[in-house]
Amino acid sequence: MSQGPYIAAARKAIRDICAKISSSADISQKLLRFGLIAFRDHPPMDMTYVTKNSGFTSDVAIMERNLASLIASGGGDGPEAQTAALAEALNTEWAEGAAKIVILITDSPPHGLGERGDHFDKSPDQNDPLEIARQMAEHGITLPTYGSKYRVQFVIACEPTLSSSYTHALDFYGAITDITGGRVLPLMMADKLGDYIVGTVVETVETERLIEEFEKVILDDVYNKSQPMEAVAQNLQQFIADRGVQITTMNVEDIYNRSDVSRQNQSAWTGAATIGSARAQVKPVTEPRIQQQYMQSPALVLPGSPPSLLSANPTGFSVTAMSAMQRQQLEMQRQAMMQTLKRQTEAASQQQRSQMPQHAQMLPMQQMQQTQPMQQMQQMQQSASPAYLPTAAPTFGSSPSAQGPAAYYGKAPISQQQATRIVQQSVSRNSKVTTAGYVSKTSGQTVPQMRPGGPQ
């Protein structure tokens, strides 16, 4: 798929993203640092570059130029150099005491998952993405009076390509975000990319402020009182709810079909030491990954094409289980229709062009220096909120497929999932994260690994 719409969307939205994060999270724009790591593929699949790290900058104009320099091409076999990009993000020069967030935007898996047509059985740079995820989870030591250091990973899944073209990608990305305490968010419309970035960053900043407040208590409950992490999360949610505290929340409606096989695969990836050791345990998911109503969204179905072209195939085989020849035929049909759609929209408005169902791979990072005292956010109203997201009660619309998955962005009571992430991140950054569990850096005590489960 073409990277163009997502590069264009990021370039167009970067100033608005910076302003909204600054006002919503109460952080000076001078303290916001953005980075961009573009990735393609390893030779001989791509001979241009594997990763391109533009470094951090607080200058929005520089970030715009960095995005403008990207060329939407490269790759060749489907899986790409996501592992190399994550390794680059892990080892880049982050500022001490800063909040660190990595957002991976992709429509394909990394090498080594066992996807049909993958020319590598592991990442050619010898890095393993599961190990990188565990290092991200444990990176950083909390300084109680200065602010925490943390690295949280989100995956924005460009759909329907990610789920319809690959057998293992969705389960794998669910696993690495389980390890890091992040989330997988489905993106079906390129022009919503900026809203997703703002929402995830602001929610993470507010969640971190709760981690700063409760981390010592959580560690005491888990390591000294031997309470299960799940029970600690439940107690934390109830305690915060009783105080009447609400935090900014970014929720995207779940578009995926959850099968037992998919959940077992995700658990296998999460608990494996390496991707190679997990491959024998994962199984193909034959049923459609995306719920039918979302596959029929106007944002996804091309003019003149049958809904089955981009959704579950009514003849009995799913897109994820098709043969290489069938996949090639489908791709040729899609390319022909994309050319037709391009010609049809040449005279259309910019808004219409922004909704073309194309996809990209790039890895932006947001780094925010926190030096101001903890406080509740006061500016999450219309001027700061993404325009397409409601500010009313946190409920989803009755007709989500009209514009893709419904989303909510605003103040809400802390959810069990958010409480789980607070507990997980509090423990992981004070522990060695292993396949056996979390090993305390102070006492050496081991507690079982917490597996929230699910891309959301």
UniProtKB/TrEMBL annotation:
One of its GO terms (molecular function) is protein serine/threonine kinase activity. Residues 355-382 have a biased composition (Low complexity). This is VWFA domain-containing protein. CDD domains: vWFA. Residues 336-456 are annotated as: Disordered. Residues 336-354, 414-434 have a biased composition (Polar residues). GO terms for cellular component: cytoplasm.
